[in-house]
Design goal:
alpha/beta; Serine Threonine Protein Phosphatase 5, Tetratricopeptide repeat; 2 domains; 7-stranded mixed sheet; 16 helices; 7 strands
């Protein structure tokens, strides 16, 4: 007798394969798994929706001149919250190029008053500033054929679907932002290539950072100067000297050193971060926040995130400050809240920046 056949085997295998693909948040063909979703180039659904305070918001009216990014997200999806935070951090820059963002919550098919209140509290805790809308009856969810959370639609300035992404893996997130930037006409700078550094310069840099964390600023300065002599094309010790100048309030010396480092590597994270601190020192706080917002969204730099947190805390924005502090702690393992800035003054924020930067620098390689 032959082996008994399982009449459900094929169906179950097909279902399992589909579920595995969804769990892996892969990008799917629109006509295979998302029947009914408009094809790329077709008019995109942009209905009137309800915001978290009961008002009506039209997606069409929310769109910028270049287009609109619509994120389908849920509180139970960590990846969608990650994407929401990154889009929110980029919102100001994108708005300057005509791109708007709307976050459509799809927690469940319908939300009662209590659930809406809890969602509003959650959004307030996340401290996002982009419009958050509720998809009543999941109508928009189905109109776009969403099969996994998060999913993201990009609508161009003419109201047509320009791009659609299922999921938000590490590979996909850069693909998504490339698509947004193309529509907005933003040219992303090429990634900074690692420099070939003289070993003696690198050793002196690391020694100087350790001396700085131990409170020996004069010895650290000498080590950084020696590192520069060992390799004049290496911007890192120049940035460290600029940071020391800012620690002592010498804005003129810091500006000169940062310009010198930028001439070697214009997109150097330390240059951009310390220029933001210089702006804060000179009371150009809004400019400093914008730069640090962008750095925190795009770079794994704990010091930039901490700087942002200290400025926001001093401005009274405790919720967003906590988010920035948590980001810094995740990157470095060091909680910025342990290094001062608690009395909410600008002077305290600048002192805390110095203390945290020195501690983080000591562990940097």
């Amino acid at each position: 007798m032959g082996r008994a056949r399982n009449p459900y085997g094929f169906v179950m295998a097909l279902l399992l394969a589909t579920l595995l693909n969804v769990a892996g948040e892969r990008r799917f063909d629109s006509h295979a798994l998302a029947q009914g979703r408009p094809a790329i180039g077709d008019p995109a659904p942009t209905p009137v929706m309800r915001d978290l305070r009961g008002g009506d918001r039209s997606l069409k009216e929310l769109s910028g001149r270049a287009g609109l990014v619509v994120l389908f997200w849920a509180r139970w999806s960590e990846r969608s919250i990650d994407e929401l935070r990154r889009l929110d951090a980029a919102a100001r820059t994108l708005a300057a190029h005509g791109m708007a963002i709307a976050a459509v919550n799809v927690d469940r098919q319908s939300l009662g008053d209590d659930e809406t209140s809890r969602l509003l509290h959650h959004v307030d805790q996340l401290a996002v500033r982009v419009p958050v809308l509720v998809d009543r009856g999941l109508k928009l969810f189905h109109a776009y054929g969403v099969v996994t959370i998060p999913s993201t639609a990009i609508i161009d300035g003419n109201g047509r679907l320009a791009y659609f992404l299922f999921g938000y893996s590490h590979e996909q997130r850069e693909e998504l932002f490339d698509a947004i930037n193309r529509l907005a006409g933003i040219t992303r700078p090429p990634p900074v290539k690692p420099l070939a550094v003289e070993p003696a310069a690198l050793r002196r840099l690391q020694l100087g950072r350790l001396q700085l964390a131990q409170g020996h600023a004069a010895s650290a300065r000498s080590s950084f100067e020696t590192a520069i002599k060992a390799d004049e094309t290496f911007p890192d010790p120049i940035v460290e000297l600029a940071a020391l100048a800012l620690d002592s309030g010498d804005a003129a010396a810091a500006r000169e050193l940062l310009d010198r480092a930028a001439a070697l590597q214009a997109r150097h994270v330390g240059v951009r971060r310390e220029r933001a601190r210089l702006a804060a020192l000179e009371t150009r706080v809004a400019e400093a926040e914008t730069t640090l917002d962008e750095l925190t969204a795009s770079e794994a730099d704990a010091t930039a995130a901490a700087y942002l947190g200290y400025l926001l805390h001093a401005a009274g924005d405790r919720t967003r400050a906590a988010t920035a502090f948590d980001r810094a702690k995740t990157i470095s393992g060091l909680d910025p809240r342990a290094y001062g800035g608690a009395d909410s003054s600008s002077a305290a924020a600048l002192r805390a920046m110095t203390a945290y930067r020195r501690e983080v620098a000591a562990g940097r390689r």
